[in-house]
Amino acid sequence: MKDRIRFTTKTQRTQRTTKVFLVFLVSWCLCGSSSLLAAPFSFAARHDHLKGACTGKLTIGENDISFDGPKHHFRWPYLEVQQLRLLNSGRIDLLSYENGSKLKLGADRAFHFRADGGLQDAAGFLAAKLDRRLVVGLPEKPAGILAEFPVKHLRSLGGDNGTLVFGEETVTFTSQDKAESRAWRYQDVESIATSGRDQLSITTYERQRFHYATRRVFNFQLKQPISEDTFNVLWRKVNKP
Ligand SMILES: [Zn+2]
């Protein structure tokens, strides 16, 4: 069991630091070299309504995100995007600063789309535009794996199983439930904690719900224990100055 939890010594990490800058430039892990790809990125997309949907073209441009369809046209300059979530299922959730309907008790207006694919290419570009306002649900196995755990992701009702992987630059959770998969850069992780050898919590900057500003915590039950040394390696990654 132990050999499945891998972590590096301080010396090994030091040797790797010279490579980190190049690794970051060349393969930001989430998207290969796609961060170097240029906008615009356009997708055929479905805009979900409370009842039904319309279809159109979603464009991620240099200065804004827009949707053009026969029924609806929207445009959000990047400053007007509170949070953008790209999920593995092709779902795209955009939270604007626009006031929502009175039915939603003052929550800001959210827009929901579905695209057929191609989001991976746009993810690197969007990270540069939105930073922590971008939530990425498109996990790609990180480079330079530090630790890997089969896990159950605990939710208020039940949970989902998957694999949690800590790399040199990113942390990924690949879930059987596509909507729950995530890829975080270490700067997207607010904190990491453990209350025992078989439990790990990752607090992110993602909103708990679009209605509330609270941060989302991902609680994981580890199917094999984490050693203190490994936890310390990961803690330092999250808390590096
Ligand atoms: Zn529509």
Record keyword descriptors for this entry.
binds zinc ion; globular; PH-domain like; eight-stranded mixed beta sheet; 15 strands; 241 residues; disordered N terminus
What does it look like?
There is one protein chain. The chain is of the alpha+beta class. It has two domains: 2-26 and 142-239, Pleckstrin-homology domain (PH domain)/Phosphotyrosine-binding domain (PTB) (PH-domain like), CATH 2.30.29; 34-137, PH-domain like. The chain has three helices and 15 strands. It has helices spanning 10-26, 119-130, 228-239, and strands spanning 41-48, 53-60, 64-68, 73-77, 81-87, 91-99, 108-115, 134-137, 147-154, 159-166, 170-175, 182-185, 189-196, 199-209, 212-222. The strands form two sheets. It has an eight-stranded mixed β-sheet with strand order 4-3-2-1-7-6-5-8, with helices on one face. The protein has a seven-stranded antiparallel β-sheet with strand order 12-11-10-9-15-14-13. Strand 5 and strand 6 form a beta hairpin. It is globular, with a radius of gyration of 19 Å. The chain starts with 9 loop residues before the first helix and ends with a helix. Residues 1-8 and 19-35 have low confidence and may be disordered. Zinc ion binds at residues 47, 49, 54, 69, 71-72.
